[in-house]
Design brief:
alpha+beta
Length: 529
């Protein structure tokens, strides 16, 4: 059980990372801040805080009341999950505002991971913890309050009659961390932690807070030559995100509070969307997915200038490609688009396999095989296509035919007006090289002019032929049916705010319930259990 518990901790914490908190703050008259605020903001090198309203999500899914739920699965859920979440039995309230936090100095491994919850009955909590963790039990009285601990190697659980914290760490002493966190509830946290305040105000299915400013320490530790301006731009920067399963939609929001980064020379995201002419490089009717990005190229070169001190050299890059820094600055406009058009089955040839049957007998079997090749069109705004084409010819690595440069067996470059086109499909490259272009693709819901935009086609009637051919089996039919649940899947972003939204065809029911109902019905129909 001990090994299982140690595996469960980081997995559970990882799930909670993209998550929420939704109970009222536990405020007391003698504190400037809530106990949650004080405890979480006391963590040294705090990188991420997250929470998930697990019980609310389960309720939204309608899992337990689903008429198609197999009786065995329902019984297992009640025994293995529902009872473990019952605060009356466990003494631990796992509903609402339960936070997960990560402390990081070395970006390759966290110092420690914390999970905290409210206690409804300290004695019941003791039995629950000891059932899960067969460690050493101790207790201490501090300022009239009894604190209880169970410690096992790299895991410690500490609680009193109000709160419980679980600490996982192979870097520090977990019991001391857990004890310090509980005591920190009664010490006012910093007034300046605006990100923590914004995070604790949220009452969503899932929430996350990233304290970007704390990354300064390990960035400087990794490289003492890190530009001071870049480090200063991180000061007071933070991200707060949320996720919700609503009636008819799934929405994930990402709010970015980083004026220093936005106003610095390292902000690579442009203010405006790309020109609509990029949408002429989408197929007219059938498409899998499409995305655009409007980039401040000067910021990219500033970052490369810094990287030149470590892993990158403009001189070496010019020797290898013929492209100087000045040429690249003049050449690319910063407008990019990526279109995922189809998947083709390409016959790759014939192989001969030898199969040894005995020491003296051999069979030779010849067979042909197909490979799934995605048809992708990458489009980049370019200032001087003539000069770029000349560089490709001079490189000696490109095979040229009718305006198409073949760089590899599945990499073809051509130019169309003021666009560079890189595609995996020779016929597509030849089409654009001839001067033709596709009609504008009609995107569901349109585009709102953001510098980042992407969408996935979920309409089975508009799926490309190659993809539909691959779906001619049971698994493919299920996948196509699942995509048919969605009206649209769209991502939009600008510097201050990014949003992912999946709109369902069924507007009246919760999106998670619609998905859960579909999954359970497929399990029943296909007799998977």
């Amino acid at each position: 059980m001990r090994k299982i518990f140690k595996l469960i901790v980081p997995v559970f914490a990882g799930a909670a990372l993209f998550s929420s908190c939704s109970s009222e703050e536990d405020k007391t008259e003698n504190l400037k801040h809530s106990t949650d605020y004080n405890m979480l903001s006391s963590i040294d090198h705090l990188a991420v805080v997250g929470s998930i309203d697990l019980l609310q999500i389960i309720e939204k899914s309608g899992f337990e009341s689903n008429p198609n739920l197999p009786s065995e699965a329902g019984a297992m859920y009640k025994m293995m999950v529902k009872e473990k979440l019952d605060a009356d039995k466990t003494g631990i309230d796992l509903s609402g505002n339960n936070h997960f936090a990560v402390s990081i100095v070395d970006p390759e491994k966290p110092d420690f991971v914390v999970y905290c919850a409210k206690v409804t009955n300290a004695d019941n909590a003791k039995h629950t913890v000891q059932d899960l963790l067969k460690g050493t039990y101790t207790k201490e009285e501090i300022d009239g309050t009894e604190y209880q601990f169970v410690v096992d190697d790299e895991v410690a659980v500490a609680w009193d009659d109000k709160d419980i914290v679980l600490v996982f760490s192979d870097q520090e002493k977990p019991k001391e961390i857990a004890k310090d966190l509980l005591l920190a509830r009664f010490v006012d946290g910093p007034d300046a932690d605006k990100g923590m305040e914004d995070y604790l105000k949220q009452h969503d299915d899932m929430n996350i807070y990233v304290q970007v400013g704390n990354s300064k320490d390990f960035l400087k530790a990794q490289n003492a030559d890190f530009p001071e301006e870049m480090l200063n731009s991180l000061e007071d920067a933070y991200y707060v995100g949320s996720g919700n399963f609503n009636n008819g939609e799934i929405v994930f929001d990402w709010n970015i509070h980083a004026e220093g980064i936005k106003n610095s020379e390292y902000n690579a995201l442009a203010a405006d969307a790309i020109n609509e002419s990029f949408y002429n490089y989408l197929t007219a009717e059938n498409l899998i997915a499409f995305g655009t990005a409007s980039i401040n190229m000067e910021a990219i070169f500033n970052a490369l200038e810094f990287a030149q001190n470590k892993d990158f050299s403009f001189d070496k890059f010019e020797d290898q490609t013929g492209l100087s820094k000045q040429m690249m600055q003049e050449m690319f406009t910063g407008e990019f688009a990526l279109s995922f058009v189809d998947i083709q089955m390409v016959e790759m040839g014939t192989n001969t396999a030898d199969m040894q049957v005995s020491k003296d007998d051999f069979f030779e079997e010849s067979y042909s095989y197909n490979e799934e090749v995605p048809v992708i069109i990458f489009t980049a705004g370019i200032g001087d296509s003539t000069k770029f084409g000349e560089l490709l010819r001079l490189s000696g690595e490109a095979k040229t035919m009718n305006g198409v440069y073949q760089m590899d067996k599945d990499a073809f470059i051509t130019f169309h007006k003021d666009k560079l086109i890189l595609t995996t499909d020779q016929a597509t490259a030849a089409y654009f090289a001839s001067g033709q272009s596709y009609p504008k693709y009609s995107i569901p819901g349109g585009v709102n002019g953001k510098p980042l935009f992407g969408f996935a086609n979920t309409n089975p009637m508009k799926m490309p032929a190659g993809l539909m051919k691959m779906a001619e089996n049971e698994e493919g039919e299920i996948a196509v049916s699942f995509m048919g649940l969605f009206e649209s899947v769209v991502f939009e972003g600008e510097f201050e705010h990014m949003e992912f939204r999946a709109s369902m065809n069924n507007k009246s029911e919760n999106a998670l319930k619609v998905i859960t109902d579909f999954v359970i019905s497929m399990i029943k129909e296909k007799q998977m259990i």
